[in-house]
Each structure stands twice: as structure tokens, then as C-alpha cells.
Amino acid sequence: MEYSTAASFHHSEAQFKTYEDYLDSKVTPMEVFYLKNRELARKLVEHGHKGTVLSREEFEKKAAAQAAETAKSDTSYNRSQLITLASAGKELKDNFLKALAEREEANRSGKVTSVIFIRDHNTLGQEVSGYIDYAHRLKTKDFEPYFSGKKRLMPGRSDLCYYNWKMQVSTSNSSPNFEVIYDNPNGLLFKNKRDKKLLNVDPLCL
Prior knowledge:
The chain is of the alpha+beta class. The protein is built from 8 helices and 7 strands; from the N terminus they run ααααααββααβββββ. The strands form 2 sheets. A 4-stranded antiparallel beta sheet has the order 1-2-3-4. A 3-stranded antiparallel beta sheet has the order 5-6-7, with no helix packed on it. The protein starts with a helix and ends in a 6-residue tail after the last strand.
């Protein structure tokens, strides 16, 4: 019986803002017509003439408990929605890292998707270049070492495109955000899987 009452109340609390609204739900239009007084009809309900009902104190206590529970759930949800930025609190002097930091939140939240082109030398002194899906890399790698200057962001064979100039090795992979189109007569293209727009990475087309 206690479980049923509680379950019923939670449903009622979602419907009724005040105790009077709760009482009104148990009053019929016919009763108001014959009694000629809505307040009297409420009193009859409150005093149990139409079955067991919550007292005002019980209603308000349960309403307060439910409101506190809802507020707690909302707070927990909002906290879970907060995005932790690897660049937060970092004093960045490198322009490249600054550009990454400016776009980090938008890429993490899905507001935008960015493609990064890098041409650099790896730890073996070999020149490599490639295109990186920034949003995807943020989800799969810890960027704190990059923003702290402990590691350099470099393209790899699992990125959108990768080329090792010394070894003459090249790879291409579509990502969750982009489809690689490498057999297009206009050159290398990336097709955004969300809005279907094409990104031409030819510098003359940017």
C-alpha cells in the first residue's frame, strides 16, 4: 500500500502545483454545481468524505522531497554534461596550439568538425604529412600532453591521410566525421558525414 501511495503521489506532484489543485482533482463539476462553493467541496475532500487523501502537511512534505530529488538529478545531469578541456589553464605561446585551443570546445561538443594538416619530421627525422580529424582525435587521445608541450601532435597511419616522404608510404582512412575521397579529378576531398559538404584541401581552393 505504501508503494502504491508513493507512486501515485509522484504522478500527482507532476500534475498539481498546489494542494488546492490536488483537492480540485477529486471534485466533480456536479458537486461544485450543487454545493455552490468550491472551497466547501475541497473541505469535504480534505476531511475524507471521498476516500483517503493526503493531508496538506503530507502533500507539501512529499512535494518538497520530490523537488529536492529532481534538483539533485538535474545537478548531476548538468555536471555530467560539462566538457573538460585539455587546454584549460594552459599558457600557450605557440600559435598552432592556440588555434587548437580556440577550437577544442566546439570540436568536443560537436558544434563543428575541423581537419588539421600537419607536415613535420618524426622522431626518426623522416618528413611526414597528413590530415587529422580533430574531433575524432580528441575523443581517442589525451591532448593534455600536447597542450603542455610534452608531446608534438603528429599525423599517423590511422588518420584521414598520412604520407611518409622518405619511405614513400601513404594511407587514407575515413573517420566518424569525414569520408575520404581520393580519386576525384579535382584532388583530395573530405566529405562531411553530417552535412554532406565537401572540403577541398587544395590551397588554391581554400
